[in-house]
Amino acid sequence: MKLNPVFTHTRNVRNFGVLMEALELGAGEGRLGLVWGQAGRGKTRTTQWWYANNGGIYIRVATVWRSSELELLRTLCRELGVIAPPGRKGPAFQECVEKLISTPKPVFLDEIEKMPGFFLDLLRDLSDLSGAPVILVGEEELVSAVKQNRRVWSRIYQQMQFEPLEIADILTYTSEAAGLKLPIKLASMIHKATGGDFRLLRRHTLQIVHFCNANGVAEPTEQIVRTAIQTAVTGN
Amino acid sequence: MGWGFSEKVREVYRKAGGSPVPNEDVAVALDLFGKTRARLSPTQRDMLKRGEIERVSEGVYRWTAKPKPSQIREAMWRIVRARRTVTVADMVEMAGAAENYAEEYLRLLLRRGIVRGIAGHPAKYQLVKDDGPATPQDTGKADRLRRNRLAKKEALAALDDAFIAINRARMAITATD
Predict the structure, then answer these.
(1) Segment B106-137, tens digit of pLDDT
(2) Cys-Cys crosslink for A197: which of A30, A40, A74, B11, Cβ 3.0 to 4.6 Å?
(3) CB-CB neighbors (< 8 A) of A45 in chain B
(4) The whole model's pTM is what?
(5) B52 vs A15: CA distance, rounded Å
(6) The domain over range B69-127 is classified in CATH as 1.10.10.10
(7) How far is B119 from chain A (nearest CA, A)?
């Protein structure tokens, strides 16, 4: 038995797909999407998976860009295929708008909550002028930052929170990744131990697989699941 | 609806990206009712035969068709750029690549100096040269084919020359006789 790398379509992933589809419906109109949730719920992985398979622009915002929008605009320019991005904000912004008008694509900005509020205004302008959807991805504090800026908040067309994993998600993941057929009782134990955190679920599942292999059993017992939960490295 | 019908059905499943889709959802998405809804079943049967969808439960199917290699390569390149440090498992999980194919692709990037291995973590690769969103192509096979074609052309030309020379020699011998 081994843990296979699989991308499980959890409820959050399905909701993310719905959000993207809904944003697509307003094509040609400036619109923002808001995706937020606690760390470890799979926001970044889901965003990267969607971007990898459907295209668009994905930028992980760097804290070092905090003081000025220029670096973000230059990065966006490069992602849009501008070979020599302008060195000033105005022309760089104009270049981004023109490129997004000619080839509209969704722009994902991950960890945007690290940036000061004026970045949100810049992204609102970018979406308004280009008609491309801009999806803001971040942790809980992003919601309050967006709500504080009424003009940005009013342009949020779609929003979703990455909720903790459900028992059904745990059953799907353990079955798809390790071929485990867990009874609800054991799935509930894992659910409680992980608190709906996807990273912890992965670690616990790996541990269960190790223990099953070590004990030469195909299906985990309650004892195996309990020991796996107790011994998994959780960072707590 | 003709040919377009199966394409529309396919699109509904494709958009769900592998999530189970109940027949009711397909019917609502395509505005099917009464007689038009009856067309869904033969289309699903064809798609099942082609391996595009699989049955999850009664009246529920999901998209399983594999993307083309070029799409997988593109997806893998996007993963490398988005994550900066990747493993073969990331490629398998997020780009839907086969393990061997993902390994081969990362080795190609390694040979080109686009990624480097991380000391102590043999399965991890780090992006060190980002040339932009365009997917680096595997031109090795195309170069080999081009070289083979050129060599074949030169060999054929040499063979033609040899035939001409032989014919000339034959004619010269005949003339002396």
Answers:
(1) 999 999 999 999 888 878 999 999 888 888 87
(2) A40
(3) 94
(4) 0.77
(5) 23
(6) yes
(7) 23
Q: Where in chain A is the domain with CATH 1.10.8?
A: 167-234
- Contact between A5 and B93 using a beta-carbon 8 Å cutoff: yes
Q: What is the ipTM of this complex?
A: 0.89
Question: What dotted CATH number matches A167-234?
Answer: 1.10.8
Q: Assign domain B5-63 to a CATH class.
A: mainly alpha
Answer whether B95 sits within 8 Å of A52, measured CB to CB: yes
Rounded Cα distance, A184 and A225, in Å = 12
For residue A124, the surrounding DSSP H or E stretch is: helix A118-130
Nearest by CB to A5, which of B15, B78, B92?
A: B92
Domain borders along chain B are 5-63, 69-127, 139-177
Starting from the edge strand earliest in sequence, which strands make up the sheet with B85-87, in order? Answer: B85-87, B121-127, B115-118
Q: Contact A58/B17, CB-based, under 8 Å?
A: no
Amino acid present at A153: W
Q: With contacts defined as CB-CB under 8 Å, which chain A residues touch B96?
A: 7, 53
The beta strands (E) that lie in A4-132 are given as 31-37, 57-60, 107-110
The two domains B5-63 and B69-127 share their CATH topology (first three levels equal): yes
Q: Is residue B54 within 8 Å of A23, Cβ to Cβ?
A: no
